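>> received
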Amino acid sequence: MKTLIGWIVGTLLIVLSISGCGDRNQDFSVSTMDKAPAADPSIDAKALFQRCVKCHGKLGKKQALGTSRVIAGQPKEVLMKKIEGYQKGIYGGSLKGVMSPQAQGLTPVQINALAEYISKLR
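>> returned
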């Protein structure tokens, strides 16, 4: 009986620790974030968004790979944190490998403009 209980507890601990590593669905609280500055109007955010269209759709309403959240209309600050997290490889869970290359090379100014553009998609 002790062996069975130990096995069950051990299995639960492993499952819980693994599920804690999958941060793809991590929520960012806008209330704890600083308000992002306005996007630079000289940045062509619509052109930047073209890298997103294949998976997220023209209006950002498609669930990429059938598992991601719809990105259209998410708060700008949240989108910025997510894109920055993909760049650093600290956000995205199992989709990290797909999104990281998409976010690489974007400057903070471009991230700001792209996030603002996506946040306004409806």
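>> The first helix runs from residue 2 to 21.
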